[in-house]
User: What shape does this take?
Amino acid sequence: MTKTQMKKVSKETNVSEVKSIKKISDEQLSELKDIQSKINTILLNLGNTELVKQDMILSHNALKNQWEDLVKLLESEYGQVNISLIDGVVTPVEQEK
Assistant: This one.
């Protein structure tokens, strides 16, 4: 086969391949795109939720550290006591019998 004949065969094959390409309906394509868009939105929201979660964990840890520091300061001033979070009344810790 010469190069020209090969090109003709290739062109004929490509044309027949193009004729045999199948497509889904516009409605099916629209539904497919809609579902994919919803999946992408959910994945994006999950990523954002994870970032918020990480921020909350960091904030929680910072607050725990502040709490522990304040407890140490209060213990150094008042000893081991119970402190009412309602009115700030300090009472001694009951000893177990």
